[in-house]
Each structure stands twice: as structure tokens, then as C-alpha cells.
Amino acid sequence: MDYLKTGEKRYFLEVLTGLALFFATAWLGRTAIHYTTNPALLLTAKLLPLLPILLMGAAVWRFYGRSDELQRQTILKISAAAGLLSMILLIAWSALHQLGLPPLTGQTAILVVCGCYFLCSAVVKFLESRADWGMKQAIIRLMPKLFLLACILALVLTLNRLLPAQSMPTLRSAVALGGTAIIIVIYWLLKRRVDP
């Protein structure tokens, strides 16, 4: 039962560590490409960022496997709703592009998928809180999530203004990771004050 109590924190730390390792291996790979001509080493440098992605996938699978039935049902609801919403948005992007949206890039697609997961998570958790504690407590419990969303959006917009993506991608990624970690720690502190 101990894993159920600490599972979310452990999962978050494992995924955050995987992200940090991903940025480190991406930087190492980009650096190694410039200093070697050995084809085996070049292939290894290009494939090195896949290792942290596999570690993050294993952390998600381990968290899902050790969750109780209610948590599994919630995870599946969020994943299904977010997958459907992000699929609809990504497929409809070409029609929306003709109405004035910017072209779909890899960064935009990742932001759309992350935004869909965040939105669906907030909606599902809000509906569960409303059923358990009522509308007023559900709104109060939603406030830290809205604060988290506003801070992360502000961080992304600030990084877009201050650090151009083409000139310093590694520095930008490191600042984004560190800023997101700080914002999530503040979110945990706010959530602890709201949750009983």
C-alpha cells in the first residue's frame, strides 16, 4: 500500500529525471556529431535520446501497474479522452490552417497533445471532486491546476520572447525543464494547502 501513497510523487520524479536525462543525452548527441566521423558512434549519438524515453515509458507503465482499480480507471479515462481530443485537433489542423492558424510543426504538435492531456486531466479530476465533495470544493481544488497552467503558459511565452529556439535549443530546453520543475513544486505546495 505504500506505493499508492507515494506513487504519484515517485512517478513525477522518475519522469522528471527521464526528461533531464533526455536533454542531457540530446546535448551530448549534438556535441558528439560535430566531433566524430565514426559511423557507429554517430548512430549511437543519434539513438542515445531513445533511452530516456524508454525509461519514462517504463515509469508510466510501473505507475499504472501498481495503481488500484480506481486510479487505473481514472488514468484510462484521461488517456482516452486526451487521445481522442488530440487526434481530432491534429487531424483538423490542416482545415484550421486555412482559416489562419500557423502551420503544424513538431513543437506545436507536442504542445497540442500536452495541452489536451492537461485539459482532460483537469476535467476528469474536477468531475470526480464534484461528485465526492460538491461544486464549491471542486472549484477550490481546481484552482491550483489553473495556476499551474497559467504559470507554464507564461514560461513558454517568456521563453519564446527571450530565447530564440534556433540559436540556443539546449539552453532553452534546460530553462524550460527547470522552470517547469519549480512551478510544479509551487503547485504541490498549493495543492497541499487545498487538499484535506
Helix share bin = over 70%
Main β sheet profile: none
Distance between termini?
Answer: 20 Å
Beta-strand percentage? Answer: under 5%
What does this structure look like?
The chain is 87% helix and 0% strand. With 196 residues, it is mainly α. The two termini are 20 Å apart.
Topology:
Blueprint: H1 2-35, H2 39-47, H3 50-65, H4 69-98, H5 106-133, H6 135-162, H7 169-194
Helix pairs in contact: 1-2, 1-3, 1-7, 4-5, 5-6, 6-7
Descriptive key words:
globular; single chain; mainly alpha; 196 residues
Quick rundown:
The chain has seven helices and no strands. The chain has 196 residues and is mostly helical.
